[in-house]
Write a structure and sequence with these properties.
The protein is α/β, with parallel strands linked by helices and about 725 residues long. An eight-stranded mixed beta sheet has the order 7-6-1-8-9-10-12-11, sandwiched between helices. Strands 15-14-13-16-17-18 form a six-stranded parallel beta sheet, sandwiched between helices. β16, α21 and β17 form a beta-alpha-beta unit. About 25% of the residues have low confidence.
Length: about 725
């Protein structure tokens, strides 16, 4: 008997090594790979891990802050470009640090591991001041910003089929480098801390298309998955030391003049299996820890590769599927690129995600995509159900996860009536008054009710679901909170997912974590350190957090010199308006101090390494989460765990997060829309007596170390077994 874990993404994906820049250039220009930039979605990217020594790897040390741009590069271009191993004038290089230490991470001294690695030298470009110039740093920021925008416009124009426009932009950019000076950089074109993704010295132009030696941002730590080396190997099986490189029998490197098609390129390209770092990191951690502790003896993961696959031949897909299944227990689901994009980018992110977070989509974009994106959503769920059925054997347990796959339980139930099926929604579930606005409301509910157990993070979401079923489907819940549907009794439960304390404890012993902790203490030895870490989107409340902190400093101006607020925002594709608003607030706060070298707020819109993230959690005196709506915020749980050996600092937490229901009034609960309340929470956290702080922390620590992710897995699977057995006894 096996546990079939069903989620949108597999924990592994495929890395194609296209080591001929001219080959990649021609692949990108193919019509089959050109997609409109408006359909880009960051989670749809393939994992972008450049091979050691590649040009793109050398650029990860960009010394400026990242920012979103209106027209991003099409994902397939970024996916391919990140895999280029440039053999032309590229010196060997050691793996770069995850973030640029000098300018990004608080201008701390560079750790020894990163000392030998630097960003590309722009001084060789005519017209750029040398490193000794007093204006060189600011100029380099401006130059990178303009260069990045032009690069992205060229790539976007190429993807949209506007080759002449792409050629013009590329030519103007290339020819204009020698004439670029500080005086001709318009101020309005450079946003503070904006980031380039490539250097002029690392890219070339050919036939109007930029050779894509471009760099990706560091891997997102949104769900804070610990490094693989800190996971305990399961006792029930052996784990391979690492993926082996699989080289095709014959490798073809066609000349530029020879005919080329995408299938032939990928058929001849070597590939390897790599870990996939996007998607639900909390779920991956939970399954890995439960497996390590023996709670799961045999599992198989079902999901997509998280990358476009139309260019792959059927034979290549079969080989990939066989390798993943036999060596990694992963069963890939292959769907067309348009289906994957329409499903995720348009229906999940434009329709479901806003609705489930209490923002009813009612704008032209959602209206235009609503009809056709539902077709893609249904098609992907059907493909998943087919793969589940193909991998199912009697006695298996099927566990489906999250809002991407709401139809899968019902579709599988139609084909396997007596299957043991569980479903867990990791995000919030709205009230019936919000949910009922969805045109596909009945179909989604019936899909979820195909499971034997439907799980939610907290009781509020479970209660909303039962009420919604009654309002939309006319089925009243039973006294024991179950729902009778289609001749079965469906259990509706709430059980919050937790963190993995074992892996966090092991990770904290890493020398890099200790080094970063020491640097933070040395940088601000006499200041209270306030830390926040969020995605920069309309639901995380970063703007509300900054407004509350601004009010706090206005009420208590002495803390401009007594405290430092470090706000990290991950590199998601953020709204330009939101980013501008947050930047304006931060600029306004920092302009209010008389000490220019010590601003009250350090705002970082970039990913940081896991070691840097842990160092912040350990050294923070206060942690702040002001989400407007969030299913469960595990970052604050990790903060609580890391504070055991340090200050046992207070947690300021939005009452609209699932974590607020779990942690309760042991933290400082706030309404993010109430700036006065948020400001007073800052003051209370910084002035809290030690005795009260200790008492609060003891209860918080007990909560996060008791209700762990492994405990969550055992709890849900035990409940599923019990419900299924009771159902079969009745039948």
């Amino acid at each position: 008997m096996s546990l079939l874990v069903v989620s949108l993404y597999l924990p592994h994906t495929i890395h194609f090594n296209l080591d001929d820049p001219s080959l990649v250039e021609r692949v990108i220009s193919m019509p089959i790979l050109s997609r409109s930039p408006s359909t880009v979605s960051q989670p749809y990217d393939a994992p972008m891990q450049a091979p050691t020594g590649s040009t793109s790897q050398l650029l990860t040390n960009s010394s400026v802050q990242s920012s979103a741009v209106p027209t991003p590069i099409p994902n397939f271009i970024r996916s391919l470009a990140s895999r280029v191993t440039s053999t032309q004038n590229t010196p060997p290089a050691s793996p770069p640090p995850t973030a640029d230490v000098e300018d990004f991470f608080f201008k701390l001294s560079t750790p020894p591991s990163a000392a030998t690695h630097s960003a590309p030298n722009l001084d060789s470009v005519s017209g750029i001041p040398g490193s000794n110039s007093a204006t060189s740093v600011e100029f380099e920021r401006n130059f990178r910003s303009i260069y990045a925008r032009s690069l992205r416009k060229a790539a976007a124009a190429a993807a949209a089929g506007k080759n002449s426009q792409s050629s013009t932009i590329s030519s103007n950019l290339s020819n204009g480098l020698s004439n670029l000076t500080i005086s001709n950089i318009p101020e309005h074109s450079v946003s503070e801390g904006s980031s380039a993704i490539a250097s002029p010295t690392s890219s070339s132009f050919s036939n109007g298309l930029l050779t894509p030696s471009i760099v990706t941002h560091p891997k997102s730590r949104a769900s804070s998955p610990p490094p693989a080396k800190h996971l305990v190997t399961p006792r029930s099986k052996s784990i391979p030391n690492g993926p082996s490189l699989r080289v095709a029998p014959k490798k073809v490197q066609p000349s530029k003049s020879s005919p080329l098609d995408a299938a032939s390129v990928f058929k001849s390209a070597p590939w390897s299996v790599v870990k996939y770092h996007k998607g639900n990191g909390g779920l991956r951690n939970a399954i890995a820890r439960a497996e390590a502790e023996g709670a799961i003896s045999n599992k198989r993961w079902i999901g997509t590769l998280g990358m476009p696959t139309d260019a792959l031949e059927e034979d290549t897909k079969k080989v990939i599927g066989r390798v993943l299944l036999t060596e990694y227990q992963d069963a890939p689901v292959f769907v067309s690129d348009s289906t994957l994009e329409g499903h995720y980018t348009h229906y999940c992110k434009d329709i479901l995600w806003p609705t489930f977070h209490y923002q009813i989509p009612d704008h032209p974009k959602s209206k235009a995509y609503e009809d056709h994106s539902w077709v893609h959503y249904h098609a992907l769920n059907t493909a998943f159900a087919d793969v589940v059925v193909a991998n199912y054997t009697p006695g298996d347990t099927i566990w489906v996860h999250d809002y991407h796959l709401l139809l899968v339980p019902g579709l599988v139930r139609e084909k396997i009536p007596d299957a043991k099926i569980g479903f867990f929604l990791h995000i919030a579930f709205p009230s019936s008054e919000v949910y009922r606005c969805l045109p596909t409301r009945k179909l989604l509910l019936r899909g979820m009710l195909g499971a034997d157990v439907v799980g939610f993070q907290i009781n509020e979401y479970a209660r909303h679901f039962r009420q919604t079923v009654q309002v939309v489907l006319g089925i009243a819940p039973n006294r024991d909170d179950t729902i009778d549907y289609d001749g079965r009794r469906v259990a509706v439960v709430d059980m919050a997912i937790g963190i993995d304390p074992v892996s966090l404890r092991l990770a904290s012993e890493d020398p890099d974590v200790k080094r970063w902790r020491q640097m933070l203490r040395e940088r601000w030895p006499d200041k209270k350190m306030i830390v926040g870490r969020d995605k920069l989107d309309q639901f995380r409340g970063v703007r509300h957090k900054m407004l509350g902190y601004e009010r706090f400093l206005k009420n208590y101006p002495e803390y401009k010199e007594k405290a430092i607020f470090i706000q990290v925002c991950l590199t998601n594709i953020a709204s330009q308006d939101l980013e501008s608003e947050v930047s304006d607030i931060v600029t306004r706060i920092n302009a209010s101090t008389h000490v220019v070298s010590e601003p009250p707020v350090v705002f970082l819109h970039q990913d940081i390494s896991f070691e840097q993230y842990l160092a912040l959690l350990y050294e923070a005196d206060v942690f702040v989460v002001t989400s407007l709506r969030e299913g469960m915020n595990l970052t604050c749980h990790e903060y609580i765990f890391c504070q055991l050996e340090t200050s046992k600092g207070p947690l300021i937490l939005s009452e609209f997060t699932g974590s607020a229901a779990v942690l309760g009034d042991k933290c400082l609960l706030v309404n993010p829309w109430d700036r006065v309340e948020v400001a007073e929470a800052f003051h209370k956290a910084l002035t809290m007596p030690e005795e009260e702080r200790e008492e609060r922390y003891k209860k918080l620590y007990s909560e996060v170390t008791t209700n762990t992710c492994a405990h969550w897995v055992r709890l849900f699977l035990n409940k599923l077994d019990k419900v299924w057995e009771e159902q079969h006894r009745k039948n």
